[in-house]
Amino acid sequence: MPEARPTASAPERPAVVAVVGPTATGKSDLAVELALALDGEVVNADASQLYRGMDVGTAKLAVPERRGVPHHLLDVLDVREEARVAAYQRAARAALADVVGRGRTAVLVGGSGLYVRAALDELAFPATDPAVRARLEAELEAAGPGGEALLRARLAATDPAAEAAITRGNVRRVVRALEVVEVTGRPFSASMPERRYSPAVAGLGRVVQLGLRADREVLRERIAARVAAMERAGLVAEVERLAAHGLREGPTASRALGYAQLLDALDGRCTVEQALEATVHGTRRYARRQLSWFGADPRVRWLDTDALVAGGGRAAVLATALAALA
């Protein structure tokens, strides 16, 4: 595909384009197409793709699929390391500034809503207390399967807005919210991101967010097909290999969709087939949460990818995305 260059009569090229939305809607592919069309580089905003070796289960583009477009913040963590939003924020903003500073367009892509917001929006990080966090984590572990419900009930009593905003299954976020309430005496919700670009990002130039969405039933089937394709591509072997390198000890990577379920299978708590089915159901729930998260942001310009693909394929998606940047 020939590279499209802005002309004197064309609208100002955005400094930053964010491609967001539910999983399995084609965000990574569109990000590459946009980078080629806008003389840009891609910056990752998928928390699981930060990890080296987590390739098949995160649908990370292989090097040939990146088509020569530089990608930033892929493969920067070992699976035993914890992914921290504050650290990601610093790295992402540095990457965005670097790309734009070299006269190129930064294409931020990912479905991890908090990471997208951390990169783009005003988001402060309250003080931490390792001792308080350790105690809360010990309580969580001691409570067993009911640990999340126990801590959620406590958070709902002290900061109902935060409890309602944290997605089910995100126990680390619940622990963090309780830690902030205890350490600062202020609600965790007071530090949650506002829908306003940070001065560091706004100062780079125009920012545009494009959201990809699909028909719900089509997306359900696409997710099932994607997990099946991941199995054929070696997902089980990937989890086995990472488990030998400390995946179980990773506080973040071990909980990623697909990886957590297959670790259960490897440890005898279920079969591989049951783990894959649980991955499908978990990914469908996650896609609904992603749509709710991004759907609440009025700045996102939505593209209905199913209709576009049916009407003209990937070229139609790219043409509509470029038109939405005007």
Description of the structure:
It is a single chain. With 326 residues, the protein is an alpha/beta fold. The protein has two domains: 16-123 and 194-324, Rossmann fold (3-Layer(aba) Sandwich), CATH 3.40.50; 130-191, Histone, subunit A. It contains 13 helices and six strands. The protein has helices at 27-38, 85-101, 113-120, 130-143, 147-158, 160-165, 171-184, 199-202, 216-232, 235-243, 259-266, 272-295, 305-324; strands at 16-20, 40-44, 71-72, 105-109, 207-213, 300-304. Helix 4 crosses helix 5, helix 4 (130-143) packs across helix 7 (171-184) and helix 10 packs across helix 11 (259-266). The protein is globular. The two termini are 21 Å apart.
Look up the CATH topology of the largest domain. Answer: Rossmann fold
Order of helices and strands: EHEEHEHHHHHHEHHHHEH
Structural class by secondary-structure content: alpha/beta
Relevant CATH superfamily of the largest domain: P-loop containing nucleotide triphosphate hydrolases
Average pLDDT rating? 91
CATH top-level class of the largest domain? Alpha Beta
Low-confidence stretches: 1-10
Q: What is the multimeric organization of the chains shown?
A: single chain
What is the makeup of the main sheet? 6 strands, parallel
Radius of gyration: 20 Å
The helical percent reads 40-55%
